[in-house]
């Protein structure tokens, strides 16, 4: 990938967590495009959630709510977990993990990170596969399921996303929590003025499509993606699992990466900002404008 194209991707689309894109019936060239994209990013995907304070906010908030709602122990599926950032952290917390992702290069990185963290005994399996088809796992195999960073966003077809949601719930045991985070559409629109994306001038129809409908077919610096509204994610889980809460992972700081990093570097306001963030990030308005937001559900007993 050309350096300029990569830069556009990382800035404009949040350099989000690698995920699963194997869509049944999708042109294999598109699947290959996605795998190439994340293969080329490689270790940048591992570093994304630690690259600065703003990106750490997504990880830190996700972990905060995971630790609130996860059971005390057990086996967790990290579906679409890429290079294993959450797998490693949850293993350090004493959980057993199965990591699944589409991209072999990212799973290679995950194996290295797991070994360096000394948690190999906690990671029971590393599986190359799709969140749309978890048939390798039996019903009720896991005490919790996490699908974080945007895997569902990279399933373009409505039917494919519904299949993926059904699979994530199916492999959870009755009463188990299921967590899924996606990339937000309204934050994408808000970031327009920050990055002045080339599509505004060069391809306004493409710009209109992915900002107004959430559908991005790929080909302009990023892989295919569906940018979510909160109600879309809620509706996909409705009737299949019990909604616990929704969380805006960047919350009130969403789309203000540069300024947030500057303020955190001052070292004076960290505790206050974090406290306020946690008190407000579940408000529906802040869920809606977050670059990433997460749904927390429980599988019916």
Structural write-up:
There is one protein chain. The protein is of the alpha/beta class. It has one domain (3-298): 3-Layer(aba) Sandwich (Rossmann fold). Helices cover 46% and strands 15% of the residues. The protein is built from 15 helices and nine strands. The protein has helices at 3-12, 28-41, 43-47, 53-69, 85-92, 104-117, 158-170, 185-190, 192-195, 199-202, 204-212, 230-237, 257-266, 270-280, 284-288; strands at 75-79, 96-101, 123-128, 144-147, 177-183, 215-216, 225-226, 242-248, 292-298. It has a seven-stranded mixed beta sheet with strand order 3-2-1-4-5-9-8, sandwiched between helices. It has a two-stranded antiparallel ribbon with strand order 6-7. Strand 6 and strand 7 (225-226) form a beta hairpin. Helix 5 (85-92) runs parallel beside helix 6 (104-117). The longest helix is centred in the N-terminal third of the chain and has 17 residues, at 53-69. The chain is globular, with a radius of gyration of 18 Å. The termini are far apart. Residues 1-28 have low confidence and may be disordered.
